[in-house]
């Protein structure tokens, strides 16, 4: 069964801290993995896309890594800011018709 | 990135009525779009895959007669919640990709409340 798990479910950190969000998946034969941000009551904003052949992707203060053999991806956020507060979702695509989402990590960055 | 527009963003309807939600790809053509549902404090669950010019493919447990999907053109898919009940109240989001291995772009979501 293909499943995506995210831990922790919630995280609260002071402003300026570096932090890591974790995503694990059950089947290593993925097409790609995508990290999203969701603000309360809003849609999804794509942050980073990692293809199955890639090990990491970077955008600004965000860095996402992928280790297919262990079924893991991490999202690293450097120098966190209050504006980073949101729910972060990891989604894995095993085939074109299926995009499985984790349950998300709700991040609160305190000023 | 590409833009997917969803309308309306919020809708309140009476129990027993039908509601239509539109999903448009504004600057690209999408032969396939996806509809998701999100329960409070839960993640997104795929409801169905919308295919341009053909019938939608529904996930197990999703009532196709209740959630009607039409993908009439390469830029528009619609989800109609028929005979809505309070338990249909949820957040519905659509997405589309250019091709298989590219980013998926999501609409802004529609908050449906059935009273």
String of helices and strands of chain B: EEEEEEEEEEE
> What is Rg of chain B?
13 Å
Measure the end-to-end span of chain A: 41 Å
Extract low-pLDDT stretches of chain A.
none
Distance between the termini of chain B: 37 Å
Structural class of chain A: mainly beta
How much of the sequence lies in strands of chain B comes to: over 45%
> Main sheet of chain B?
7 strands, mixed
Q: What is the string of SSEs of chain A from the N terminus onward?
A: EEEEEEEEEEE
Secondary-structure content class of chain B? mainly beta
Instruction: Tell me the number of strands of chain B.
Output: 11
Largest interface: A-B, 24 and 27 residues
- Name the helicity range of chain B: under 10%
> Could you report the average pLDDT of chain A, rounded to the nearest whole number?
93
Name the overall outline of chain B: globular
Alpha carbon gyration radius of chain A:
13 Å
Helix content of chain A: under 10%
What is the overall pLDDT average of chain B?
Answer: 89
Q: Number of helix segments of chain B? A: 0
Poorly predicted sequence stretches spanning 5 or more consecutive residues of chain B: none
Count of extended strands of chain A: 11
Annotate the secondary structure layout.
The complex is a heterodimer of chains A (111) and B (115).
Chain A: E1 4-7, E2 10-14, E3 19-25, E4 32-38, E5 44-51, E6 56-59, E7 62-67, E8 72-77, E9 86-95, E10 98-101, E11 105-110
Chain B: E1 4-7, E2 10-13, E3 19-25, E4 32-38, E5 44-51, E6 57-58, E7 67-73, E8 76-81, E9 90-97, E10 104-106, E11 110-114
Parallel strand pairs in B: 2-11
Antiparallel strand pairs in B: 1-3, 3-8, 4-5, 4-9, 5-6, 7-8, 9-10, 9-11
């Amino acid at each position: 069964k293909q499943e995506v798990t995210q831990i922790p479910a919630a995280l609260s950190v002071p402003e300026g801290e570096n932090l890591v969000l974790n995503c694990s998946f059950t089947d290593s034969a993925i097409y790609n993995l995508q990290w999203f941000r969701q603000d309360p009551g809003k849609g999804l904003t794509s942050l980073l896309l990692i293809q199955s052949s890639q090990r990491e992707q970077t955008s600004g203060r965000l860095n996402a890594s992928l280790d297919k053999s262990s079924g893991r991806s991490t999202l690293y956020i450097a120098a966190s800011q209050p504006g980073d507060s949101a729910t972060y979702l990891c989604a894995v695509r095993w085939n074109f018709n299926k995009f499985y989402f984790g349950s998300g990590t709700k991040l609160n960055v305190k000023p | 990135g590409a833009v997917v527009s969803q309308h309306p963003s919020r809708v309140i309807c009476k129990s027993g009525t039908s509601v239509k939600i539109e999903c448009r790809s504004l600057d690209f053509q999408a032969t396939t779009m996806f509809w998701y549902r999100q329960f409070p404090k839960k993640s997104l669950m795929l409801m169905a895959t919308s295919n341009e010019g053909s019938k939608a493919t529904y996930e197990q447990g999703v009532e196709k007669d209740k959630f009607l999907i039409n993908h009439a053109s390469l830029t528009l898919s619609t989800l109609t919640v028929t005979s809505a009940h309070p338990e249909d109240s949820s957040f519905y989001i659509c997405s589309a990709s250019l091709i298989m291995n590219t980013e998926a772009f999501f609409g802004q979501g529609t908050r449906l409340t059935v009273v």
